[in-house]
């Protein structure tokens, strides 16, 4: 099987993004992430909060939905959803758009493609290895066209 340069680039970027302190993940195709997710959206993240439990701190952030590719029926008409993840990237947490250390301002107005799950209590959750969060601009145009076809995809 041969991969196009664009696919190889995305795989390389994901390996960098996903190899964080204590969290190493095997790369899956965007289709696999989509199929195992309960939701998949293109959105702009904002409004981060963190609980104070130091051992397993949890971040919560808002996603302003630009396009919904997959969404549970109880959220079908929502334009904004709240998602949680581990605060620590060492626990495979995802904090899309949150300012890095040394940055003073949030990286706002940058769309991401993100997938996640609905937990038993109805909360939305995402984390590396099981799900994906990528800057939309990092995704090559052929992959973006593939993502746009996801709602019609049979998994």
TrEMBL record:
InterPro entries: Netrin_domain, TIMP, TIMP-like_OB-fold. Zn(2+) binds at residue 23. Gene3D superfamilies: 2.40.50.120. It comes from the Eukaryota. The keyword Disulfide bond applies. GO terms for biological process: negative regulation of membrane protein ectodomain proteolysis. This is Tissue inhibitor of metalloproteinase. The lineage of its organism: Eukaryota, Metazoa, Spiralia, Lophotrochozoa, Mollusca.
């Amino acid at each position: 099987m041969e991969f196009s340069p664009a696919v190889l680039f995305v795989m390389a970027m994901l390996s960098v993004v996903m190899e964080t302190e204590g969290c190493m993940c095997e790369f899956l195709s965007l289709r696999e992430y989509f199929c195992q997710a309960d939701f998949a959206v293109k959105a702009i993240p904002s409004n981060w909060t963190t609980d104070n439990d130091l051992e397993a701190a949890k971040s919560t952030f808002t996603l302003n939905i630009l396009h919904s590719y997959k969404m549970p029926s109880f959220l079908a008409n929502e334009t904004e959803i709240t998602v949680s993840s581990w605060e620590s990237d060492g626990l495979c947490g995802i904090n899309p758009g949150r300012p890095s250390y040394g940055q003073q301002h949030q990286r706002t107005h940058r769309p991401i493609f993100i997938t996640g799950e609905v937990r038993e209590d109805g909360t939305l959750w995402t984390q590396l290895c099981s799900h994906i969060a990528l800057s939309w601009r990092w995704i090559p145009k052929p992959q973006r066209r593939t993502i746009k076809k996801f709602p019609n995809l049979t998994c």
